[in-house]
Amino acid sequence: MARVFVITGPSGVGKGTLIRNLLSRVSGLELSVSATTRKPRPGEEDGVHYHFLTDEQFEERVRDGAFVEHADYSGRRYGTLRSELERRTAGGVPVVLEIEVQGARQVRETLPDAVQVFIVPPSEEALRERLVGRGTDSSDDVERRLKVAEEELTARDEFQYQVVNDRLEDAVEELERIVQSELPTG
Ligand SMILES: Nc1nc2c(ncn2[C@@H]2O[C@H](COP(=O)(O)OP(=O)(O)O)[C@@H](O)[C@H]2O)c(=O)[nH]1
Ligand SMILES: Nc1ncnc2c1ncn2[C@@H]1O[C@H](COP(=O)(O)OP(=O)(O)O)[C@@H](O)[C@H]1O
Question: Where is it chiefly localized (predicted)?
Answer without folding.
Answer: cytoplasm
